[in-house]
Structure formats: C-alpha cells, structure tokens
Amino acid sequence: MEQKLQKSKVEDWFDNPKRILVGGLVVGIGGFLIYKLGNKVIKDINKNHTSSQADSNLDVQQAMLLRNAMNPSGISWMMSFDLTNNDAIFAIAKQIKNFDKVAKAYKKLYNDNLTSDLQSELTTEEYKKFLTLITASSSANATSTTSTIATYATKGQMIVAKKEVFMRSSADASYHDAFYESSSGNNIVGKAKAGDFIGYATGKQEFDAVNNVKFIQVGFVVVKDNLPSAFKDYAGKKFTFWVSSSSDYVDKFDFFKHMFDKYPALSTIVKYKKPLDFYDTGVTGFTRRLVVSIVNMQVLDERLQPIVRVEKQTLLGEYIGAIDSQKKKFIKFRTVDNTERWADASTIKIIER
After folding, report:
1. How far is CA 170 from CA 185, 205, 260, 293, in A?
2. At residue 340, does pLDDT exceed 90?
3. How far apart are CA 317 and CA 332, in angstroms?
4. How do residues 50-69 score in pLDDT, each as one tens digit?
5. Which CATH class is domain 58-141?
C-alpha cells in the first residue's frame, strides 16, 4: 500500500509540468550559483597566492606596476577614466624578461587580459613601441641562446615546421581556412607540414595584436641550375611568407649541422632553396678568405657571448673583419646561411681560397 502511495506521489509530480519547471529552475540556479561561488573562490585563491609573491617574483611585480600605470586610482572600473602613465609603462617594458609570465600574473591578479588592456590604454604607435621595448629587453637579458619572450627569429636563421603551420601572405591570423569563413579574408598561401623546411628568416617581424600572434617573415630563392624536374619551373624565383614564430609551431636553427641532426631529410631540399640574397650578393658559396676552427671552440654572437660549441677543423664561414681589444682579438665571419658570427682569433685560422 505504502509503495503504491509513493508511486502515486511521483506520478503526481511528473503530471504537473509547473512543478517540473520550478524544480528545474531551482536546481539550475543553485548549480549556477555554486559554480560562480566556486569560480570566485578559485580566482581569489590564485590572486592571493600571486600577490604574496610580489616581494620575490619579478614577473608579479611588473604586472602590478603595469596595472598601476594604467589604473593609478586602483579602482578597476575607473581604468578608462584614469590618466595612463606612458613613461612608466615604457620604463617597465625595458625591464621585462618574459612577457608571457607577466601576462599570466596579471590575469591571476586582476582577471583581465594584459594585452587587451595595453591596447586600450595606448595608441597603436605607443603599443608598437611597447612591443619593441620588450623584445629588445628580452634579448638583452636572455641567459640562453633564445629569448625568454620571444620567439622572433634573427635574420638568416633556418625555419622548419614542428607541426602543420599556415604560410600567409600577410601577418594576420584572423583567417583559419574554416568552411564558415568568407574567402575574402583568405591570406593563406600554403601549409607547411611537420618537418618541412619553410625557408630563412628575413629579419622582419610583425605582431598581430588582434589575434595575439607573433609573426616572422620567411623566404628563399630557388637556385638557377642543376634542379630536379619538380623545381625547374621555379628556377631563380623568390618566395616569402609570414608564419607564426611560436616555438610550438616552428624550429629555428643557426647552423645546418644542428638542423640536419634533427631533420636529416632536409639535407637535400636546402640544396635548391637558398637565402633571398643568395644571388644579390653574388655569393654562390664560400670564396676568398675562409674561417676554420683549429681547436674545439665556441662560436660567439653579436654580443661576443658563446652560443654554440664546434669541433676542431670546422669550416665556420667567410671572413668579414676583426676587432682587437687590449686583451683579445675577435674575428667576424658570415656563415653559409648569411648569419654574422664572431670567434676568438686564437681559436681559428684564416685560409685563402
């Protein structure tokens, strides 16, 4: 009897749509409030944890200083009315070593997007200046061969796709080749598959602020002679593309040896694809004075800092010039991929050819 009574109550409940609607609303609203409360608790925990690192974490300090420069009143809704301290922003930019970490700290502290806030508070030219300053700062403060912010490439570096990446005619990542997009915005000229040699960095770079993508320009010229049939129609022609500079998508190499160690199949394709100025400079290979290592030694960058170790009897490149300090003499040379490097004069010899 009791079982039938319970069943009757359940049936009565489902027979009343209003009760179902109200019950559903209560459950839904309750769940939403719990989600919002939980989300707020998590954000508060992240904010408090990040704030507690302000004394010891430079990235957190810089995030706070940037916020203060844009929102000196400290009242978030007043940001658009506060007077932005551009000089302070540029001064901070000169000290930033890792913009991505600063942006993450900013997000945890204020639940806002640092890039969007900077774009709102600065003019286009001021924002470009900010990007230039942080790029220069990260390069000057880098402790390794690659910048901590960046993924921008130096002229002459060889660029290889780590995974499928779009090659574009302009530095704009808005179009994704999706079926629902209008073809009017299509700037995709090709796709490089994982392991493809894309070309040589030209040194030009752009930042797509709308899509938060850093781009580098990459190009090559197809050699004029001794081409396989697949390349003959392109003999002597130059090609340039814009690709994402993210280390998630591309690998960058200063030396062929390092590239071939990781991508041995590329040793054939680079015979036909050369830097854009390969013919402009008249260089068809090493000529005249060549720089060769005589011991196991370090190749130096433009700041005379070691970047890679090479073995004895390695052909480094073509001699350009030298500087002689009171303590040491340094030789400047151009590598086969047209990158300028330095070496301690005591570690190399120059041969005529």
Report:
1. 11, 11, 29, 41
2. no
3. 9
4. 555 556 688 888 999 999 99
5. mainly alpha
